[in-house]
## 1
Amino acid sequence: MITLYYSPNSCAMSEHIVLEWLGVPYEAVQVQIGSDEYRKIAPKGAVPAMRDGNGEVMTQNDALLKYLVKKYPDADLGSDGTIEGDYKLNNALAVVNGDLHPAFGSVFVPHLYTTETDDASIAAAKEASYARIERQMNYLNEHLADNKYMLGDKRSVADAYVFTVLRWSFMIPKTVMEYPNLKKFFDLMMEDESIQKIVKIHNPEK
Ligand SMILES: N[C@@H](CCC(=O)N[C@@H](CS)C(=O)NCC(=O)O)C(=O)O
């Protein structure tokens, strides 16, 4: 059985959604990012981490999502098997993992993006991320103008990851709802019962 180590509303929501889509037995263990206890499992202290049975602890969103695609081929959550399809999946995951996700870094931990320690400098570091995020959101908004999902007509693990990161935009002034194609994608994903279930698990108080 697969064990997922996650923190609520973090990027690990992506694997959580995919495991739910797969409908396979899994265990989701909530951890404290960076805690000594969690570092015994995942030395970097970051989520997500995943273990398949008694195998080694695996990390990195891109690698974990591709692992799930390959382990459960019947679910068809990856490439269509062509070289072009492989490119599309790799490209989509790279866009989220390498561009969109890191753009939110200074929203969550602005103090790591400045050498200053006063409140104004930390607020400025956070605000500096807004333009960077907007560039990435604009790119995705264009991409989704002609594509229902990240890979076109086909749902994939990349959609779970994009959805997860788009939710973070509610923490900044310009949210996903202000980009028409992203809104359409987001609303479509929110209709999904598995996603509703996982969002609830991550936000039990709402
Ligand atoms: N490159 C990593 C990044 C993971 C990541 O940034 N996770 C965040 C939560 S969304 C985290 O745990 N940050 C704490 C840290 O990196 O120390 C991946 O794709 O898995």
Note: The CA atoms of residues 51 and 59 lie 9 Å apart.
## 2
Amino acid sequence: MTTGTAMTLRSRNRRSSGQESPEWVRISAASAIALGFRSGRFGRDFDFGGINLLLNYEDGCRSDCGYCGLARTRPGDYEDKSFIRVEWPLVRTDDLVDRMAAVEDRLTRLCISMVTSPYAFEDSLEITSRINAKVRTPLSILVAPPTLNRRRLGRFYDAGVDMIGIGLDAVTERLFRSIRTDVPAGGAGLSWKKYWNVVDDAREIFGPWKVNCHTLVGLGESDQDLVDLFVRLVDRQIFPYLFCFNPEPDSRMGLVPKSTITRWRRIQLVKHLVEKEGFRGDDFRFSEEGSLTGVRAVHADLVVETANQGLAFMTNGCPGENGEPGCTRPYGSYRPTEQFRDFPFEPTTSDLVNIRAELEVDRLFF
Ligand code: SF4
């Protein structure tokens, strides 16, 4: 019996509470508001077309990352746990698909976030096929590498998945090993090598600019670690997407402060310069500890113009069908009451005044 067949049989025979995937999924609070499952408004008006789904299981995610709201050992029932600090209401998959089909012309990007579960692969495929039967909006899967192999990635591709996201989060092997492991439970944790095997296979199967790696700023990495990874990914035509670490209460890293706004804005700017302007590591200067201390003065005009334009500070996410912003995850990196860490729309003139002050741009060149 093949592993795939064994998994299918297990999936069919499994005990279910009745509110698990694939019949049920969680959706981000912003998606629930946009689709009318919840009442509410965004603090500022903007078009919202990225719908984020999250698989749901009674026993939750089997991984135990130190910063994650869904971590297995974080106190509380899985049903009540937040993820990237936002609530994820539970809805029937078929109701969700019908609502998305009804407003398809307003949607820009759909995404299924897997969790580490033996059922996650088959359920993601099933939900993909239900969506693709009725909705034409491009679909991403933010994958759980421990549940995948090359053959399974190929099945996602054959099912019509457009892009693959890999939540690397920690940008060095040392950090990854120390944070993405279930130390309190004495478990083995996630494998850096496995994550990169999935990145490599996804890049081969899905092609250039169809794979992305989520990277978190504020887990303990240096600026130089981030720049090295951005260059490495962009060279391979893989998108680096930036997230700002935002401590989840009661998680193992719940008391670790988020990065300062100046560091965050500078990393946003630097990432944009690497991705869109071809900057390399030696265009920047770093301290011995790897903190960014400057950008070559020869680039000053371009850097100031980039900062003034504002695109560098928008949310990184999979694009819509025509390259427009697709997945914008409002409130993924900040609370609704806080200033935007990334903007799900083009920053306004007054936003840009604040951003320039936060960047301390005059002190950026050497
Ligand atoms: S950027 Fe959005 S759509 Fe793309 S993989 Fe990440 S969560 Fe999914």
Note: The radius of gyration is 20 Å.
